[in-house]
Write a structure and sequence with these properties.
The complex is a heterodimer of chains A (102) and B (214). Chain A is mainly alpha-helical and 102 residues long. Chain A has a single domain, classed as Helix Hairpins (Orthogonal Bundle), CATH 1.10.287.3510. Chain A has three helices and no strands. Chain A is elongated. Among the domains of chain B are: 78 residues, Up-down Bundle (Four Helix Bundle (Hemerythrin (Met), subunit A)); 34 residues, no CATH class. Chain B is elongated. The longest helix of chain B is centred in the first third of the chain and has 25 residues. Chain B contains nine helices and no strands. Chain B has 214 residues and is mainly α. The chains are: A mainly alpha (102), B mainly alpha (214). The interface between A and B is large, with 72 and 86 residues.
Chain lengths: 102, 214
């Protein structure tokens, strides 16, 4: 039994679908949606790292590095918005976000 | 062989953690599931020859992002149980779509001609971090700098969004301290010999002015 790229990519596909299912299941909770978004980004990272290993190129890891950066930035802003949203609305339900100005 | 077994071990741990995130009723359980997921993902990365990214993953996700989630969860005082109600009407359709997507992806992956084994074995003598640095600081130097700018923007954005001026905090007013004059702070008396100095009840001019204004 040898490890093939197909295994890596299928695990990553399952992870992507779990992230999407989490977004559907936790439709009202912003924090859970952010966590599931991280799962989706992680699956992309896993894809890139697997491909970079099997093709012997390091470029995939460089792209994964940039995705990591963007994920961290997105999460910092997202959690700041969640904090602000909670301060204004006293809830983190998505349905409570009905107005453009906070 | 050992790589194959380890891969499925870590992949199972990762998917289990993802299941905790997706199905956990309490978001605190979700954060712990996130720790599980990312530690296993880091192990997978190291297994796939990306040591630097694996360690970076632990530092960024477990060290920073999970702690940030915990921080926000602790700050927010909310009953999370009620947030899960009311998704029943959308559940079957959503799950159907996600399962269909999963099936499509798996069929596509297995039908595609992905390489069965490692194509080029290079850099056995060169460390992963050296290889990464060679590419990152030459071909990708502009995206690298842009990544730094993105992080700076995110930092400034997060601070600007959450910062609020607080009125209940006593602050040092440096201007007032610097412009304090001698006449504000001192009273000269010339007591008679043997009479001593009477206690003086006296308010400085600046304080008196402020009191008159308000």
């Amino acid at each position: 039994m040898m490890l093939e790229l197909v295994h890596v990519v299928s695990v990553s596909a399952v992870l992507l679908c779990m992230g999407l299912a989490g977004i559907v299941l936790n439709r009202r909770n912003i924090i859970a949606i952010l966590m599931c978004l991280e799962l989706v980004l992680l699956s992309v990272n896993l894809n890139l790292v697997g491909a970079s290993y099997f093709w012997g190129e390091v470029e995939g890891q460089v792209l994964s590095f940039f995705i990591l950066t963007v994920a961290a930035a997105e999460l910092a802003i997202g959690l700041a918005i969640v904090t602000l949203f909670y301060r204004n609305k006293k809830t983190i339900e998505i349905d409570a976000a009905g107005m453009m100005r906070g | 062989m050992i790589q194959y077994l380890l891969f499925w071990l870590f992949a199972g741990g990762m998917l289990g953690g993802a299941g905790l995130i997706v199905l956990g009723r309490n978001p605190m359980v979700g954060v712990l599931g996130m720790l599980l997921t990312f530690v296993h993902a880091a192990a997978l990365f190291i297994l796939l020859g990306a040591e630097f990214l694996g360690l970076l993953m632990i530092m960024v996700y477990v060290g920073a992002i999970a702690v940030m989630f915990l921080f926000v969860l602790m700050t927010i005082d909310l009953d999370f149980g009620t947030l899960r109600e009311g998704f029943a009407p959308y559940l079957p359709l959503g799950l159907l779509l996600v399962l269909a997507l999963a099936a499509e992806l798996l069929v596509a992956v297995y039908a595609s001609g992905l390489p069965k084994e490692v194509m080029i074995v290079n850099g056995d003598d060169v460390q992963n971090i050296v290889q990464l640095g060679r590419v990152l600081f030459t071909d990708y130097v502009v995206p690298f700098q842009t990544a730094g700018l993105i992080l700076l923007t995110a930092m400034i954005g997060a601070i600007v969004l959450t910062h609020r001026p607080r009125s209940d905090v006593r602050r040092q007013d440096v201007g007032m301290q610097i412009f304090r004059a001698k006449v504000d702070a001192m009273v000269k008396v010339s007591p008679a010999v043997g009479a001593g100095v009477k206690p003086v009840h006296w308010t400085p001019k600046s304080v008196a002015k402020k009191a008159k204004k308000s």
